[in-house]
Amino acid sequence: MDLLTIFLTGLLAGALTCLAVQGGLLAATIAQREEDRLKNNILRGGNALPILSFLIAKLIAYTILGFFLGYLGSFFSLSIKSQVILQIAVAVFMIGTALALLNIHPIFRYFIIQPPRFLTRLIRKESKSKSIFAPAILGTFTIFIPCGTTQAIMALSIASGNPLSGAVILFAFVLGTSPLFFILAYLATRIGGILQEKFMKLVALVIIILAIFNINNAWALTGSTLTLGSIWREAYCTFSFCSDTSSGAVAEAFTNEATINIVESGYSPNNLSVKAGSSVTLNIKNEGGGGCTQSFTIPTLGIQRVVPLGTSDTISFTAPKEPGQIAFMCSMGMFRGVINVI
User: Fold this and answer.
1) N or C, where is the chain less crowded by C-beta within 10 Å?
2) Whole-prediction pTM
């Protein structure tokens, strides 16, 4: 996932999924400070300072955690098959978490990972402190109680295989959670039970949508050209005119050597034609692509090359003897293209 997608994931789902645990503890800290203010007749002040203290400490803690997770991931590399299994497992976990939030069945409570009890007692004890440092300590402790979406992003930090990339990934995600988390935490002591229940339903809906998106990308990573995007395109083209390029039709001319540029929006060109049984050479140039687009992947051929920004690489293979289509994509299955074997 590129950093913008990670940031938006934090903005749309991360803050909501963490509100139930982390938001409740932060609200308890704010309530203690409010109680102290009333007892000592202190002039009313905003609750922004303890919330900012909590969020800044949380951002720093997760960035450091991402650095170590990326360092851990540098010792191994996942195969394409392992990536597919991991993405599907994460999606199943997210759906289970959503169903648990909706109270569909008691069995789904097992998808909610609970921290060790001694950590829970320590964190709750600290949340009762009236010190301005209490929210900061609490924000640091949240790395021990990561929410469902956060756990998926932590796995992504490990998969990056680079300490700096891991740190930036978690930084972008936690930064994305901060605006909504600030608003919800500020209103936490004023939110009634009915409104909180509606929030949880919204959380579940967002998680399920992201899980379906994840499963679709994992399916694309198997090499299949049948995805939600292709189904939608075929349905759209059934009722309206589509050019050959938009419908993915086979081009008339074929080539045995081509240059594919990695750009911000994916791959250009993203539709090539080669002769069946011929030797094919692809020159991959990264002119402006970040995130997962740097990992150029051809699943059916078992090829995956990481091409960092500003570099290039060459991939050679023998095209299948039977006509058909070979899908290529990024390592998350998000940005795709096709090689037509004719």
Assistant:
1) C
2) 0.53
